[in-house]
Amino acid sequence: MSEKSKFLKKKAFVDRDYCVACGACTKVCPLGAIEIHSGIFAKVNLDKCVGCRKCEFECPASIIEMKVMEGENGKYDKKEEVS
Ligand code: SF4
Ligand code: SF4
Fold first, then answer.
1. Confidence of residue 51 (pLDDT cuts 50, 70, 90)
2. For site-directed labelling of 41, which of 9, 14, 20, 56 has its Cα 20 to 30 A away?
3. pLDDT at 79
4. pLDDT 10s digits, 25-44
5. Taken in order 45, 76, 72, 12, is the CA torsion positive or negative?
6. Which residues pair with 9 in a beta bridge?
7. Is 11 exposed, middle or buried (0-12, 13-18, 19+ CB in 10 A)?
8. Which residue has the higher pLDDT, 60 or 70?
9. Which residue segments constitute the domains of the chain, with CATH numbers given?
10. Is 55 strand, coil or helix?
11. What's the whole-model pTM score?
């Protein structure tokens, strides 16, 4: 395992069950990393998200949080996904 792949970073995680698809997060993201999926919930493009937290502060429902990622192009760390 390379040193880079061991690096842990955080990216935006949307709790879809409580998202009201208001679109506020999509407007503030400087990288266009969030879109409203099928008009139902916000979906984060993990390849684009840099974890700047702007969406987290903007969400009126407070259902965006930063979660630890595994690896350079990894998925959310399962240990962090307990609900
Ligand atoms: S954390 Fe920043 S880059 Fe990532 S989705 Fe939110 S606003 Fe966009
Ligand atoms: S700002 Fe919050 S409630 Fe609105 S679309 Fe984004 S995640 Fe959903």
1. very high
2. 9
3. 56
4. 999 999 999 999 999 999 99
5. positive
6. 69
7. buried
8. 60
9. 9-80 (3.30.70.20)
10. helix
11. 0.81
